[in-house]
Amino acid sequence: xxxxxxxxxxxxxxxxxxxxxxxxxxxxxxxxxxxxxxxxxxxxxxxxxxxxxxxxxxxxxxxxxxxxxxxxxxxxxxxxxxxxxxxxxxxxxxxxxxxxxxxxxxxxxxxxxxxxxxxxxxxxxxxxxxxxxxxxxxxxxxxxxxxxxxxxxxxxxxxxxxxxxxxxxxxxxxxxxxxxxxxxxxxxxxxxxxxxxxxxxxxxxxxxxxxxxxxxxxxxxxxxxxxxxxxxxxxxxxxxxxxxxxxxxxxxxxxxxxxxxxxxxxxxxxxxxxxxxxxxxxxxxxxxxxxxxxxxxxxxxxxxxxxxxxxxxxxxxxxxxxxxxxxxxxxxxxxxxxxxxxxxxxxxxxxxxxxxxxxxxxxxxxxxxxxxxxxxxxxxxxxxxxxxxxxxxxxxxxxxxxxxxxxxxxxxxxxxxxxxxxxxxxxxxxxxxxxxxxxxxxxxxxxxxxxxxxxxxxxxxxxxxxxxxxxxxxxxxxxxxxxxxxxxxxxxxxxxxxxxxxxxxxxxxxxxxxxxxxxxxxxxxxxxxxxxxxxxxxxxxxxxxxxxxxxxxxxxxxxxxxxxxxxxxxxxxxxxxxxxxxxxxxxxxxxxxxxxxxxxxxxxxxxxxxxxxxxxx
Amino acid sequence: xxxxxxxxxxxxxxxxxxxxxxxxxxxxxxxxxxxxxxxxxxxxxxxxxxxxxxxxxxxxxxxxxxxxxx
Lengths: 617, 70
Fold this sequence. Notes:
The complex is a heterodimer.
Chain A lengths: L30 H11 L4 E5 L2 E4 H17 L7 E5 L4 H12 L3 E4 L6 H10 L4 E4 L12 E3 L18 E7 L7 E6 H14 L8 E4 L9 H4 L7 E4 L2 H5 L1 H11 L3 E4 L1 H11 L6 E4 L6 H10 L3 E5 L9 E4 L9 E2 L4 E5 L12 E6 L6 E2 L3 H7 E3 L7 E11 L5 E6 L3 E4 L2 E4 H9 L4 E12 L2 E10 L5 H9 L10 E4 L32 H6 L4 H13 L17 H15 L5 H6 L3 H13 L7 H9 L1
Parallel strand pairs in A: 1-10, 3-4, 3-5, 5-6, 9-10, 9-11, 11-12, 12-13, 25-26
Antiparallel strand pairs in A: 1-2, 7-8, 8-18, 13-14, 14-15, 16-17, 17-20, 19-20, 20-21, 22-23, 24-25
Chain B lengths: L10 E6 L5 E5 L9 E8 H11 L6 H6 L4
Antiparallel strand pairs in B: 1-2, 1-3
GO cellular component, one term (chain B): cytosol
InterPro entries (chain B): MbtH-like_dom, MbtH-like_sf, MLP_fam
Protein name (chain B): Protein mbtH
C-alpha cells in the first residue's frame, strides 16, 4: 500500500479532506514576478497600510525598485543575505520586497531581541548588508555595512533567479543552545502561495490582510508575501497587536478580511473581534484547543487551522475549523504527509506515527549546520532523489482521513505560538558561572496559562533574580522562564536522569491574606480599588497572593497576561487603561496608583465594538 | 518508539542525491531510489562527522553552480 495516492479533486475546502497531497502543481510563479503583474494590473490599489502611511502598488513598486538599486550598488546580488532590522512600518514591507528584487535573501532581525542574540544571528547568517534605521543598536560583524530603508539608488528591475534562490533565513529555537537558521527558497514561497490558493485558503478576490505575526516567525511569510498576489497588507504595529480594542478598531476601519493569529492570541481577541465582520482567521503556531475549536464552530466563524514547521515553509496542512475536531486537516496540493513507524513504513490506518513531509515546501536546510540538516531532511522512500522532513510531530488519521496532531517525540514545546526547545534555555542557564546543573519545564500556572519554569543547582551562591537577568540579556522574551528556582539537588529518575516531572511547581511569594473586596465599591470609591487590582493580578497570574512591592514581570507576567489584566480592569471599572500603564509600572503599588488616577479621571466611553459582542456571543 | 535517525547505538550510512544533498541513513533500511551511498556503515557520530567535513554548503549543488560558487 502506498501512502501517497490521492484521487480527490482539488476544488477547495468543501471537498472531503484528502489523506495526502493532491497532485503537484505546475511550477508556481515567482513572488516578485507576481508582484510586478499586480503593479501592472492595479497600480492605484493600496498595497500597504501602516500607522501613519500607506503605499499604492505603483508607489511600492517605485520604493522597492529604488531600494533594490541601492542594495545592488552595495554589491548585493543573488546568493547574498541581507539583514532587516526595522520596526513594523510600511518600510518593513519595502525592505523585504526590495531584498527579493535584488536577488538576495532576507534575515529578519527583530529590534526587540537582545543585542547578543541579534549579533549571533547576523554572524551566523554571514550578512552581506543590513537594512536598518538604527544600525548602532546592533553589533555588526566586521565589514558589514548598513543602509537605511529610504536609501537612494538607481531604480532597478528585478534580478532574475531560479526557484532554488534563497528567499529568507528564519531562526528557530535550537535544542543544543544556539538558534538554527532555516533557509527557504523562492520556489518554496511560490509553492506556499499557490498551495494556499489551490486549497481555497486564499480567496480569489483581492483581500485585505491584517499582518499580525512577527517577521521573525515564518507565519509572517504567508501574510506579508500576499502583497505579491495583489492583496492589500495592513501592517499591525506592536501596540495594535497587543491591544484587543485597538486591533478590533483597525480591523473594522480598514475592512480587514483575513487575519493570522495564534489560538492563545484569539483567547484575548475573541470578544472584541467576534461579530458580523470578523475576518477569516488563519490560526497557527500551536495546536487549537478543543474548547476553542468548538467555540469557533458553534459561532459559525470563518476560520482555518494551519499546520506546518518552518522547515517546510510555513504551512503544510490546512483544515477548516468546523465540525468535529480539533484536527490539522489535509496537506496542501503537492505536499505529502506520511505517518511512519520506526522502520519508515506507513503505520496502520488509525495508528499514531511520526509525521514526515515531502513536496514543494521542503526547505534547503539549516544554514551552516550540515549534520543537523542531514539528520532532519532525509532521503525520501516515496520519490526518487527527493528529501522528506522529519517533523518530530506525531499524528494519526482520524475520521475521513484528516490528520490529528498527537504530540511531540522530543522536548520541543509550543507556548503562546512560540516554538521553544527547552534545551536551549537550559543551555543558557548553564552558561551562568554560578550554575552547576539546569533544567526547564512547562507547567500550568492557571487553567490555560502555561509557563516556563527554570531550575538550577548552584556551584556558588546565586539568586533567581540574577539568573533571570542573565537570561534576559541573551534570550528573546518568549524564551525567558517566568521563574527560576534554586534547588539543593535535582530529583532523579531510577536510571539517574533528571526527573523533570518531579521538579517542584514554582510557588510565588505569598502576601498577607488579602482583604475582601467587591466589584461594587471599587467602581464607586477607592477603598476597594487596591484589592480589585491585586485580585486581577492573582487571577491572571494564578497566584495565591501578591504584594504591593511585587513587579508584574518578576511574578512571571508576560505580554499576553498583561493584556488580560488591562482588559479585565477596563471591563470591571470602565476606565481607560493602556498596556504600557502596566508594563511601565514598577510594582503593584505604582500600577494601582495609575488605575486610581484613571478612575478619578472618569469612566471612559465604552468602545463601540464591545456592544457588537452582545449580539453575537 | 525510537526514531530510526536517533539511535546512538545503531549503524548509519551517509547518502547523497544529484543535488549533493546529504542524508543520514539507518543501515537496516533499504536505500531509497535516487540516492548513492557516499560513506559506508559507521556510528551515528562518525556518519555525522563525515557529513560535517564533506558537505560544507547545504544549498543544492545546481544553485551553488548557478551562483558561480558564491
